Structure formats: structure tokens, C-alpha cells
Amino acid sequence: MATAVPIPPAIAPSYELSTQQEGDSLQLTLRGRVDVTHAQTLLDDLTAAAAQGVRHVTLDLGEVDYFDSGGGAVIVGFRQQLASRNADLTIGTTTPEIQGLLELIDEDALHRAPARKVPSAKPLATRIGEGTVNVLADARQLIAFTGEVMIGLRAALTHPGQIRWRETWQYMQRAGVDGLPIVSLISFLMGLITAFQASVQLTQFGADIYVANLVGLSIVRELGPLMTAIIAAGRSGAAFAAEIGTMKVSEEIDALTTMGLDRTRFLVTPKVFALLVMLPCLTLYADFVGIVGGMTVGVAGLGLPVQVYVRQTAAAMAFWDIASGLIKSIAFALLISGVGCLRGFQASTGAESVGRITTSAIVAGIFLIIVADAIFTIVFHYF
């Protein structure tokens, strides 16, 4: 059995609504207090009073003691409901205060769909200028940060006790040992592919033995350092940028600065030092694995004896060939770690910023690696 629950006086409606209907016209008179507390209740009462068949509704507000924005919202909603039934609403008797409030309401703007702002395309010259300014500003930051890193490395080499060796060993583990599987796979396949492509041409001239020369020199001079650096840029450079970027977003770097601690010594030097040590080691390992990949093709595909292939490879390479690859790997390590740390410090706020600077660190790192490799190739060729 249903039980009626009395409405507490504190929330009971404080208005009175009287109706008078003649044909399709309805006269509504509102008295008392109209506020936002009972706006929905009043709207329901008005809607119920304006039954089907009513075409003209007049609402008198002259005896209303209090009228706020909630009452204005009721008027707008009531007029919209009547319009959906092809009926109209007219405000009859009112007070100057209520009339002034209703005049502030722009009903057309309330029902109008918001205009979509179409961004205007910038002229080509403007976009080129903005891009040039951004590139120059980024180059300036990179040069300044490179100087900061050089000063930090000099201080670390002069005072080895100030190096954070625990963190440095951890970064060596991540950048070096953890990267051996992917470096092994890529280097072996590069040696394999290079030997296959070389054998297609050299076999026509009966010069199969020179596959060892071509694979050995191309691996130790170019492919070994280059592919290892690209892998390191995707692994270590991105990790450095994401780690420092997350610290920047969470204001940990600001806390270090507030405590008077050097951000280069605590955050940058261990990463740069670890990659400077491990990338040349990975390059030597990649050279060896790449030569083994080429030897696999020479022995299994061309029928060359292992001893002959090894002897021919050793005769084709000089010490400078290996040393030039190691020099490149040292420069690549500085570029990868420097750009990764710099992009981390450029993070602003939010996870989106961290993702953006991580992507930028990889792209910028690979770009600088290619540019540096081209410069080294030209310099080594002529000098």
C-alpha cells in the first residue's frame, strides 16, 4: 500500500499559480516567490496547465515578489515547449525589475548552434618564417646545452668522485647490455643483405672472394656505427627524453634547482657518460656480428672456406677503418644523449608533452646522426 510522503516546508514551492482558460487561450497568473530552487517544479506546473489544444498563453508576473535567473530559465523553457506544439507565450502584466531581467535574455542566441571557427590558413611566407625562427631557436638551445654538457663532462673527468656511479652503471646496463639482442639481429641481417647484394654482381666477374672486402669495409666504416647509433637513438635517446620529461612535468627538476643541485651533474652526466662508453662497445660488437653475417653468405652461398674469408677480410681492413667507425660512434653518442636530455628539459605540462618530446628526440637524433655521418665521410675521404 502506497504511503504519501509529506513535502518538508523548507523545500515546498513558494509560489501560487492560477489558470483561466477561454477556448484556445489560457491566462496564467503567478504570485509569490520564483527562484532557482523551484524552477523545475514551476516549469512542470506551467507545462501541465497548458494542456493540448491551447494556442495562446498569457503569463502575468505582476504579483511576483521575487524573480531571479531561475525564473528566466523557466520562461525560456516554457516558451520552447509551447513552440514545439505551435503555441505562443505572451508576458502580460509584469514589474520593471522582472522586465529588465527578461530583456537581458537573448533567446535566439540560446537556441542558435555555436558558430564553428574556421582557422585561417597562414601565408606560405609566414609559415616559412616561423619555421626558420623555430629552427634557429632550437639550434641556439642545442649549442648552449652542448656547452653545458661539455662543462659537466670536464668536471666529471677532473673529479671522478663526483660522478654518480650507481646511476651510471644502471644506464650502461640499459643502453649497452640490454641492447645486445636487437643490435645482434640488425647487424647480422645487414651483413647478410650486403653480402647477398654484392655476390649478385661480383659473381658475374668471378670475383666472389671480394665479397669479404666489400662487407668488411662497409660494415666497419659505415653500416656498423650508423645502424648501432640509430638503434641507440630509438632506445636510449627516447628513454632519456621520457625520463627527464616526466621529471620536468612532475616538477622534480624544479625541486632540484630549489635545493641548489646541479641538474647537469645529477641528470645529464650519468646518461652521457654511459652512452659514451657503451656505444663504441656496441659498435665493435655490431662490426663483428655484421662480418659474421657476411661470412655466412660467403661460406654457405658462395662456397668460400672460412679461413679464406677471414684472411681476405683481415687483409682488406686497416686499423684506421675500425678507428674511424669508433670516432663516429663517440660523436653519435654525444648527439643522441645530448638531444635526448635537451628534449626532456623542453617538456611543458601533461602526458601529451612527454610523448611529443620523446618523438622529437628520436627524429632529431636520427637526423643529426645522418648529418654527422655525412660530414665524417667527407672529412675522412679527403683528409
Q: What does the model show?
A:
With 383 residues, the chain is of the alpha/beta class. Helix 7 packs antiparallel against helix 8 and helix 10 crosses helix 12 (319-345). A hairpin with a 2-residue loop joins strand 1 and strand 2. The termini are far apart. Helix content is 69%, strand content 9%. Strands 1-2-3-4 form a four-stranded mixed beta sheet, covered by helices on one side. It is elongated. It has two domains: 14-109, STAS domain (Transcription Regulator spoIIAA, 2-Layer Sandwich), CATH 3.30.750.24; 143-382, no CATH class. It has helices spanning 39-49, 69-84, 96-103, 107-111, 124-158, 165-175, 180-202, 211-249, 252-258, 263-300, 306-316, 319-345, 351-382, and strands at 15-22, 25-34, 56-67, 88-91. The longest helix is centred in the middle third of the chain and has 39 residues, at 211-249.
What are the salient characteristics of this protein?
13 helices, alpha/beta, elongated, 383 residues, 4-stranded mixed sheet, 4 strands, single chain, disordered N terminus, 2 domains, Transcription Regulator spoIIAA
Structural class label: alpha/beta
Identify the overall geometry. elongated
Percent range for β-strand residues:
5-15%
Largest sheet entry: 4 strands, mixed
| N-to-C CA distance | 103 Å
Q: Radius of gyration, rounded?
A: 39 Å
What's the layout of helices and strands?
Layout: E1 15-22, E2 25-34, H1 39-49, E3 56-67, H2 69-84, E4 88-91, H3 96-103, H4 107-111, H5 124-158, H6 165-175, H7 180-202, H8 211-249, H9 252-258, H10 263-300, H11 306-316, H12 319-345, H13 351-382
Parallel strand pairs: 2-3, 3-4
Antiparallel strand pairs: 1-2
Helix pairs in contact: 1-2, 5-10, 6-10, 7-8, 7-10, 8-10, 8-11, 8-12, 8-13, 10-11, 10-12, 12-13
